[in-house]
Every structure is written in structure tokens, then in C-alpha cells.
Write a structure and sequence with these properties.
Helix content: 25-40%
Number of strands: 13
GO molecular function: cysteine-type endopeptidase activity; protein-phosphatidylethanolamide deconjugating activity
Number of domains: 1
Family: Belongs to the peptidase C54 family.
Radius of gyration: 21 Å
Shape: globular
Largest sheet: 9 strands, mixed
EC number: 3.4.22.-
Structural class: alpha+beta
Keywords: Autophagy, Cytoplasm, Cytoplasmic vesicle, Endoplasmic reticulum, Hydrolase, Mitochondrion, Protease, Protein transport, Thiol protease, Transport, Ubl conjugation pathway
Subcellular location: Cytoplasm, Cytosol; Cytoplasmic vesicle, Autophagosome; Endoplasmic reticulum; Mitochondrion
Strand content: 15-25%
Distance between the termini: 46 Å
């Protein structure tokens, strides 16, 4: 194994620092807490997130491959955690809480089974590693945030239970029109029917040649929005720090995957100048579901104070995630992002107290209504779930994080 991929185990329960006694607000995935009066609530919230770590003694990946992901699977596990958080939002809601030894809801058991380390689980380490081969990553090689985002997008196609849209926003640009077309596929069908039969004939058209399935006519397919970014060269540019914090304050936040070079973490919030994260760098035995499908789930929840690191230690290559269950939630996210961007713009111009801009920063990405002329639509590739045309795919989805466009320090 390449020495650069070797890492460490961190599960030494006596070594974790207690949560700080501070008057600074604590933000965890869109929820604000007071560390002085709500510490138990903070720890309960953290413990309720799915915590995926290295595992050992699982069935060989690909039949003859590795039986442990120790040393190379940390970003894959972080990808599982951010996707797991989205599935929890989708099926259980943000306010759901886990408690040890309690009877769990069927939806929770189904979510957990989707990540069990075996080949036929939707989002297992086996599926992610093998799908990554199509992204130019041999099994056992370390992933970057962009690569794992692309792999999760492919795997979600086969999850007919959750019926999610996973959109990876490339070129630091989120295109509203493109996302609404993906989450409301009936819009395209309505347009096609309108062209052939007249707009007023939509209902009749749906009963005929343009008929859609119940899934396709849903008003909105829940959205996982992943935005791969590079916020500097070798270190994070401090101009993005306040903007990054704002991401954790949005109710749609799924957190951020990133970390340090060759050492990935799942960031779920911040307090002061420290990021709060779940660390996958501990090796636990693989878990087998019982005959009735139940899973011994205690090792899938972090039951000690979460890890923290200074935000300036963050590697600049990250992927931010957001979940919008409905169109209203997506519209609300767009409004909040535009408000943040306006606030950041004003901080360069003047101090406008009515906008609550005490400290400014630079936008990490653009939010636009329609696709800029210089961008190529993914839909134009007509990609299918098996993505067999790897040469064509590679031109648009470069798996090397070093190829991200460096966001410039220019004033708006």
C-alpha cells in the first residue's frame, strides 16, 4: 500500500476532550446550541448522526479484494456519513434522536442496512469502491471529495426506496434551472407534450405516449446537492472561513467532507474558530445483521464528545452538502444563499449594520438562475447508470481534486 495512504486509529475513548465551556454559539447541521446550558442536547444530536468508520473482516471486495478499508477508506466512509445524514432527513427528519437499546423504527433499520459492509447493500464500502473504478480509482486507493461525490451520485440511481436526486455542482456553480429540471422531471415531459399536443392537452398526453410513472410525476424528488470546492492552494484561504461557517448554519446543511491531506473527516458544525467533526479513523469489526434484519447499531453512533480542529487546519479541497426535501426548501436555500452572498458583497463595500454583516467573506460558489454559456450540461452527455463510456465521462468529471478551479480573490 502506498505510504501516503497510511493513517491512524483514533478510537481511544479516554483521549477525547470534553466539549468546551464557552459562550460562543455551537452550530450542528443548521441547529444552534448553547454550550453552557445545552451540552446534553449537543451530545445527543452528535450521537444521532450515523458514524461510519474503518471496518475489518468483511467479505472481500469484488470477491478477491481487501477485507478491510483501514488506511484507504476514510473518504469513502465520510461519503457514507454525509449520504447517511441525507437519508435520515429523508425518512426520519432532522429532529429524530437515537438512544441506546431503544426499539428502532423500521425506516432507521432500512437506512442502516443500506450501508452494511457487503456487496448487495446500496451504499456499502463494496459498492462505493467498485463504482469508483469507473472514476479511475482502483480499489484500495484514497479518494478525494469530488470523486466520492460522483460515485454517490451514480449509486443513488439504484435506490428506488429513497428516490433521491443527487446533483454534483461543478465549476463552483449551482444552476437553479438545472436542479429544478432534475427534481421535477415532469416539467420536461410537460414541455414535450405541450409541443406535440398543445399545453392544454397535458393530462391526455400523460395517458398516452408521454405517460410517466408515479415516481416521475412526483412534484419534487428530494435533492442532495453536493458542491466540490477548492478554497485555496495548499491551505484554506481565510477569506472563505466565514462563508464556510455560514454553510453549517443553514437548516438544509448536510455538513462538509474534507479534512487534512490523505486524512478525511465529516464536518458537522463549528464552535468559535473550531470545526466539529466525526472521525472515521478507527477500525471496528464488521457487523452482520441478524436473521430478522436487525443490526447491532451501537458502533454506528459516536458516543463520546466529537472531535474538533481549528478551521485554518482544514485542507482546501472539500465538498459541501445540502438536502432539500421539497421545492419550498430548495427555494428557501436559494434565498438564504443569496442573502449570504449579498452580505459578503456589502462587507467589501461598506459596513451595513442592518444586514448583520459584522465580518465578511468571499462566496465559495455561484448561484445562477440558468446555465451560463460556458458550461456544458451533464444531461447533454445522456449518461446512463452504468456510465460505460469512461473516456467521455472523464472529460467532464475529473476525479483529481487538484484540477478544481481555484476561486479568485476578486471583489464583487
Amino acid at each position: 500500500m502506498d505510504a501516503a495512504t497510511l493513517t491512524y486509529d483514533t478510537l481511544r475513548f479516554g483521549e477525547f476532550e470534553d466539549f468546551p465551556e464557552t459562550s460562543d454559539p455551537v452550530w450542528i447541521l443548521g441547529k444552534e446550541y448553547n454550550a453552557l446550558t445545552e451540552k446534553d442536547n449537543i451530545l445527543s444530536d452528535v450521537a444521532s448522526r450515523l458514524w461510519f468508520t474503518y471496518r475489518k473482516n468483511f467479505p472481500p471486495i469484488g470477491g478477491t479484494g481487501p477485507t478491510s478499508d483501514t488506511g484507504w477508506g476514510c473518504m469513502l466512509r465520510c461519503g457514507q456519513m454525509i449520504l447517511g445524514e441525507a437519508l435520515m432527513r429523508r425518512h426520519l427528519g432532522r429532529d429524530w434522536r437515537w438512544a441506546r437499546s431503544q426499539k428502532q423504527r423500521e425506516e432507521y433499520i432500512s437506512i442502516l442496512n443500506a450501508f452494511i459492509d457487503k456487496k448487495d447493500s446500496y451504499y456499502s464500502i463494496h459498492q462505493i469502491a467498485q463504482m469508483g473504478v469507473g472514476e479511475g480509482k482502483p480499489i484500495g486507493q484514497w479518494y478525494g471529495p469530488n470523486t466520492v461525490a460522483q460515485v454517490l451520485k451514480k449509486l443513488a440511481v439504484f435506490d428506488t426506496w429513497s428516490r433521491l436526486v443527487v446533483h454534483v455542482a461543478m465549476d463552483n456553480t449551482v444552476v437553479i434551472e438545472e436542479i429544478k429540471r432534475l427534481c421535477m422531471p415532469w416539467l420536461d415531459a410537460a414541455g414535450a407534450c405541450g409541443e406535440s399536443e398543445g399545453v392544454g392537452e397535458l393530462n391526455g398526453c400523460l395517458e398516452g405516449a408521454c405517460a410517466l410513472t408515479e415516481e416521475e410525476t412526483a412534484l419534487w424528488k428530494p435533492l442532495i446537492l453536493l458542491i466540490p470546492l477548492r478554497l485555496g492552494l495548499s491551505d484554506i484561504n481565510e477569506a472563505y472561513i466565514e462563508t464556510l461557517k455560514q454553510c453549517f448554519m443553514l437548516p438544509q446543511s448536510l455538513g462538509v467532507i474534507g479534512g487534512k491531506p490523505n486524512s478525511a473527516h465529516y464536518f458537522i458544525g463549528f464552535v468559535g474558530e473550531e470545526l466539529i467533526y466525526l472521525d472515521p479513523h478507527t477500525t471496528q469489526p464488521a457487523v452482520e445483521p441478524s436473521e430478522d434484519g436487525l443490526v447491532l447499531d451501537e458502533t454506528y453512533h459516536c458516543q463520546h464528545p466529537p472531535c474538533r480542529m481549528h478551521i485554518c487546519e482544514l485542507d482546501p479541497s472539500i465538498a459541501a452538502g445540502f438536502f432539500c426535501r421539497t421545492e419550498d426548501e430548495f427555494d428557501d436555500w436559494c434565498m438564504r444563499i443569496r442573502r449570504v452572498h449579498l452580505c459578503e458583497h456589502c462587507s467589501f463595500v461598506t459596513s451595513l449594520s442592518h444586514l448583520s454583516c459584522n465580518r465578511g467573506g468571499l462566496p465559495m460558489f455561484e448561484l445562477v438562475d440558468s446555465q451560463p454559456s460556458h458550461m456544458v450540461s451533464v444531461d447533454a452527455l445522456n449518461l446512463t447508470p452504468d456510465f460505460s463510456d469512461s473516456d467521455r465521462l472523464e472529460r467532464f468529471f475529473d476525479s483529481e481534486d487538484e484540477e478544481f478551479e481555484i476561486l479568485s480573490l476578486r471583489e464583487a
